[in-house]
Structure prediction request, 602 residues.
Amino acid sequence: MSQTSAITAAEVSHLADLARIALTDEEQAALTGDLNAILSSVAAVQEVATDEVPATSHPIALSNVMRPDTVGETLTADEALSGAPASEDGKFLVPQILGED
Amino acid sequence: MADLTRLNALELAAGMRSGEYTSTEVTQAHLDRISAVEDTIGSFITVTADAALATAADVDRRRAAGETLHPLAGVPVAHKDLIVTEGVATTAASKMLEGWVPPYSGTVYRRTQEAGMPLLGKTNLDEFAMGATTENSAFGATANPWNTAKVPGGSSGGAAAALAAYQAPLSVGTDTGGSVRQPAAFTGTVGVKPTYGSISRYGVIAMASSLDQVGPMGRTVADAAALHEVLAGHDPHDSTSLRDQAAGFLAAAEAGAVSGSLAGKRLGVIRQLTGEGVEPGVQAAFDAALAIAEAAGAEIVDIDCPSFSYAVEAYYLIMPSEVSSNLARYDGMRYGLRVEPEEGPITAETVMAATRAAGFGAEVKRRVILGTYALSAGYYDAYYGSAQKVRTLVQRDFAQAFEAADVLVSPTAPTTAFDLGAAQEMDPMSLYLGDVATIPANLAGVPGMSVPAGVADGLPVGFQLLAPAREDVRLYEIGAGIEAAVNETRGAGVLAAAPEL
Prediction:
């Protein structure tokens, strides 16, 4: 199986929306070229990734990593809010979450 | 009194123990050196002079009172500005975190504090550790102390330059695809990427979590080993932290430095990482170091790792995928930068997009969007899934290779340090291929080290050693053997060949 179809400027725009990065037109054009060059190269992994090879997600697999169910050190509310761009009444102050429509 | 900045960390520790000088004197000497050369080199984003002197004074007081101290107590250290330090600004070299003062500390910083090691400052890096030159920093580039028209490598470029410029005796870096080893090679210093999980990642700003590992850096193998022992050990705050004993690194380095230690050691030269694609001067310096090791009794073995030819490609799918996920946290809501769009509605979504547009540099945006693509429905199996299979093949190549060799060796990087500005002229994939020798270790989780091999055209060349997972001691023993043999042949350490600043 090989999927190396070229990526379009419209797709880059969609990806930027998904990634929540507002791109300028120049950035979008440059990224379209960069991504095509990178993807045409990295697609080579498909040459050796045959069905019988299992995937590895983690270099040294550990399973069932647990700790005692006790309360450890935590940040105070003031500490947690100390780097916030805006806060009010001990809470993060954020812009409107839902759009008008 | 000798220039204290020219002594290595273990010499400084011994001198303080015997009362020759105090930590305050040692720390002040390094702060003076930073003042003298920082305008030329630019290793640091933040210098923490007052905090360093306060720690030094405390250590001196405790030593005078007869307290039992950590062996490295009083030896100053620099931390890469990717490591979270309570009360000390932490930026990841990004506008996104400019001015952020963390309310907690990473485990590695806490451990150096508990050992009584004064923090000299936070060193420069490529933004969020993404880059190979330290030019992707939002706060300016760092120069290579060997030649200030060259880069120091990256992403731990400030950490390496601080050592080579004698601004710090020890540095803590991080290595996701070579970011400790390549700058060590470019500056004639020693950098180690430990076994994945040897050192806690808690409080290390995440780039690609299955690849990231903190690494000790110094001017000698023994110094790096001593720092590794401070940093390593199980940490319940990191679920990938190993429970292995974090001891014996320094003892291994000391054993390796004894004449004759290389006798019978099998060094496997990785065919895929030598010859074609390696600059002639780099290859010559590597071959010369190999010949020195062979003359000292090491056995040289030819090793074939065919899957390594796909490692860079797999890495540039896995790493951006993890980056796109990890960097989703920079949303302009809880900490760091918040930017409102100039037009249109002000919602959480538009604020997040405007914040990330303003806060991230070009390379970070490129990797986030590449990762978003690689993980998207319809492409996941072809790209991310295939890359994970290559990871299995790389691990199998390592397993087979370590049946025939004790360590695998290659040049750390195919070139010496680039000119400042040259990377901006290269297409991204050509630049990424510079990581060809270092990436396999991160994919497989095995430990790697770069030690100085020699000099090519006035710039240092690194000699990389790779060992099986959990065999970091082997790197320290054989690495120290190579270092001792090379230095004996040269009559001095490789860094001594660097011109005075």
